[in-house]
Amino acid sequence: MVSFAHVTYFVEGIKEAFNWSRVIRLISSSKQTQYTLIKSFTLNGVIYLGTLVLLETFYPNHHIFGYSYIDLTGYPLSLVCLVFNSRLYAKIAQFEQNTTGGSFDNNNNLSVIMLYGNMALFALLLKMIPVVGSVLAFIIYCIVMSYYCFEYKWMKHDWSIEKRLTFAEEHWSYYLGFGLPGAILTFFLSTLKASAVFALIYPTYIIMASAARPQPVQKSATDRIPIFFGVRIMNQWVTNLWLRYYRQSKSYVSLPLNTLDTIKFSKRE
């Protein structure tokens, strides 16, 4: 049963999402972090977001083959930024967590890409519900935003995707608060602008999340709500389609897998 204590957890999440003192300490004490953040700001703030603002300001109604300058430039640019950002974010996570070994590169994992896509689609579907859709989508968006921020911390501890989802569901009120500031900055923007602003602020939230302590600390005090139930169903559906396709192929056969954690295929002997 949801108790009043969740209000406290929610407020604590908001507080830790404003832990700018930790961000400032890391930046001031690490030249490597400074250089990485400068690269991130240049890529996402100056080039990506700056290009979008420039096109919207001076070429708002210009089109080629039925597509606006913004779409033709913004979407390819977002893909390029995605590749470079994955490396920059991993470096920031390593600097913050003082990690000398292992890898934080999570973007080549097919199951993770599928999960992120289904999270975005799930929020979009919720938004289409009359009257309450936008509110529900915003709530999910806040928690998904927090999930992104804590991703590198969970990877360091080698948590499976299912464990990450379950933990977020158990601490839903805290993550609702932690993701609120970032959600407010991006939820009401266009898709391209939202991705640019998110890419710009995300490094600072990686730093904040690494030091955060989701409330409640005691597992016995949690009230789990299956927020990602719909996402799990969508993941299962996509995975089943994937497996069905490869099982029908003469060149490949599927191996045992955890649906949410990995999808592996090997050539048939």
Q: What would a concise description of this structure say?
A:
This protein is 69% helix and 4% strand. By secondary structure, the protein is mainly alpha-helical.
Strand line-up across the major sheet: 1-2
Q: Mind telling me the C-alpha Rg?
A: 20 Å
The helicity comes to 55-70%
Strand tally is 4
How many separate domains?
1
Order of helices and strands: HHHEEHHHHHHHEE
Structure classification: mainly alpha
State mean pLDDT (0 to 100 scale).
83
What is the count of DSSP helices, taking H or I runs of 4+ residues? 10
* Largest sheet data: 2 strands, antiparallel
Keywords:
269 residues; mainly alpha; two-stranded antiparallel ribbon; 69% helix; 4% strand; EI24-domain-containing protein; membrane; CysZ/EI24
Describe it.
The protein has 269 residues and is mainly alpha-helical. It has one domain. The chain is built from ten helices and four strands; from the N terminus they run αααββαααααααββ. The protein has helices at 5-16, 20-29, 31-58, 69-97, 110-127, 133-156, 161-170, 172-186, 191-211, 229-247, and strands spanning 63-64, 67-68, 252-254, 265-267. Residues 251-260 and 262-269 have low confidence and may be disordered.
Topology (elements, then pairings):
Elements (H helix, E strand, L loop, with lengths): L4 H12 L3 H10 L1 H28 L4 E2 L2 E2 H29 L12 H18 L5 H24 L4 H10 L1 H15 L4 H21 L17 H19 L4 E3 L10 E3 L2
Antiparallel strand pairs: 1-2, 3-4
